[in-house]
Amino acid sequence: MEVKEAEILLQNWKEVFLKLKEKDLRLAREPKTLYQIANATRQKHQDNSCCVHGIIEFSNYCTCDCMYCGIRKNNKEVKRYRMTIEEIVKQADNAVNKLGFKALVLQSGEDSWYTEEKLLLLVKRIREKCGVLIVLSIGDRPVSVYKNLYEAGAKSALIRFETANEKIYESMKEGKKLKDRLALINKLKELGYLVISGFLIGLPGQTEHDLMDDIRLTGDINPEMFSFGPFIPHKGTPLSKERIPTLDEVLTVIARARILYPESKIVVTTALETLDKKGGAKKGLMSGANSLMINLTPEKYRDHYEIYPGRKGMEQTVEDRIKEVLKLLESIGRAPTDIGLV
C-alpha cells in the first residue's frame, strides 16, 4: 500500500470512529434509570470500544454431570461430536486470516479424549498459522497442563465459577468443590493467563444476596472480562422444569456489575441474547456491557453443542452474523475491536 493511500485510509477510519463516538456519547447523556446510569458509567470509563470475539465449540463430550448443562454426560439424547485437530485449525485459520478475528475461544466439554499432547499440538498449529489470542475454555485440567498450554501460546482462559454459594455449587456439580475451582482460577492468573470468569443467573435456590456475592466474587477475581448469563433449563437435565430468569433480572446484574466495577469488560453472553433474540444484545450493551461473541463452530456441529435450548444465531451463517453484529454496533455508536471490519 502506498503511503498516500494509507494516509487516506487512516483519515477515513478516524472520521468513522469519531462519528461512532459522537453517537455513543449522545446515547449516554442524562442517565436516569439503573441501565442508563450503567451505560453512562461504561462510556465514561471504557469509551465506545466493544470487543468481538469468535468461539469454536470443538467437542460436546463431557465427563461431568452438571445439573444445569445440556451436554452433561448422562444426557443420552445428545448427538455427540468431536472436531479433529485439522478441522479446528482450518476453522481458526478462516476466522483469523479471512474474517479478521483477533481473539478466539476454543470451547469444549471436559473431554479427556483431547489429551495434553493433542491440546498442545492444537495450540501450536493455530499459532503457526494465526496471529490470534487463544482463549481456552476446557474446564478442569491439571495446572501443569495449563502451564504447558500457556507456554505453547494460549494466553487466555474462560473459566467461570458459576456461583459463589458453596451449597448451590456442590448441589449443581456433583463431586466438585467451589474452593477447588477458585484455586484453579487464581493459579491461572498467576501463570499469566488473561482470565474471563463469572457466574450463572437464576440457578435454583439463588437469592438476591447470592447474586450480589457473585458480582463481588467476580470483582475480587479481577478478571480480564466478566461473563455471566441466564440459566436456561434444558429438557435433558434434572432442572428441566425450573424457571427461566427474566431479561430484566439479567440486565440488572450487568448494570450493577458495571456500576460497582466501572473499568471492567462485560460480555453479552449468547444465553442473554437467547432470552430476547431480537433485542437482547442491544439491551445488554445499553445496560453496561461492552463485549460480544460470535459462534464460529461449523454448521454441521453447531446445533449439537446444546448446553441450553434455542440458542441465538444457530440458523445464521457466520458472515450474516458478523454483518448483524457490526450493524448493531454502528447503530449505538460502538467501535468493534478484536475483529476486522469486513
How would you concisely characterize the structure shown here?
The protein is 45% helix and 15% strand. It is an alpha/beta fold. The protein has a single domain (32-337), classed as Aldolase class I (TIM Barrel, Alpha-Beta Barrel), CATH 3.20.20.70.
What is the gyration radius calculated from CA atoms?
20 Å
Following the backbone from N to C, one meets helices and strands in this order, namely: HHEHEHEHEHHEHEHEHHEHHE
The top-level CATH class is Alpha Beta
Amount of beta strand: 15-25%
| CATH homologous superfamily classification | Aldolase class I
Average pLDDT: 94
Per CATH, which architecture? Alpha-Beta Barrel
Q: Any idea how many domains? A: 1
Give the total of beta strands: 9
Helical percent range?
Answer: 40-55%
The multimeric state of the shown protein is single chain
Parts with pLDDT < 50 across at least 5 consecutive residues: none
Number of helices: 13
Shape descriptor: globular
**Strand neighbour order, sheet with most strands:** 1-2-3-4-5-6-7-8
Largest sheet geometry: 8 strands, parallel, barrel
CATH structural fold name:
TIM Barrel
How many angstroms does the end-to-end distance come to? 18 Å
Explain what you see.
- The protein is α/β, with parallel strands linked by helices.
- It has one domain: Alpha-Beta Barrel (TIM Barrel).
- Strands 1-2-3-4-5-6-7-8 form an 8-stranded parallel β-barrel, surrounded by 6 helices.
- It is globular and about 50 Å long.
- The two termini are 18 Å apart.
- It is 45% helix and 15% strand.
- It has helices spanning 3-27, 34-46, 85-97, 116-129, 143-152, 166-172, 178-191, 208-221, 247-260, 270-275, 280-285, 299-302, 318-331; strands spanning 49-59, 103-108, 133-137, 154-158, 194-201, 225-230, 266-268, 291-295, 335-337.
